[in-house]
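Input sequence (171 aa), recorded before submission:
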Amino acid sequence: MLLNLLQNLANIRHPLRPPGAVSEQEFNEKCIRCRKCEEVCPYDAIQMTDFSWSSKTGTPIITPKKVPCYLCDDLPCIDVCPTGALAPVKDRAEIAMGIAKIDESLCFAYNGILCRACYERCPVYGEAITLKDELYPVVHEDKCVGCGICESVCPVEPIAIIVESAHEVNS
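Predicted structure, token format:
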């Protein structure tokens, strides 16, 4: 019974996978839990899931509030994946880990407090997040790669900008 509960919870939660991750179903079939992507990540952004993820236990995820993906120039995590669970990308603009979503009711900028943290730290500067009227952050889904840097620098509690996994967005 507990195992069924954990399985159901794991299927509800959508993990933020490392760059190049194929569809969630294919990822879970291909990932052999070798930890190579975790070992080569220079920022320790890639961590392995624990038993609470049920059948996804031991697979790599990124938890942006702890450590986001800094989109390394050479993407070593993809290079070391022996099974294709992390597929090569031609350039960083093709990375589609997820999409950042802003909760305007929590965001400082939308509540009269000057804040540009997500805009200024976004690695797809001036494209993935822009400022409407030079004040209000706006996420452009077609440019956002889902790295989570915006989430990690958000000074609001609870966080006003979160990255939804590409698997959540597409499900």
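Checked by second reader. The chain has a mean pLDDT of 90.
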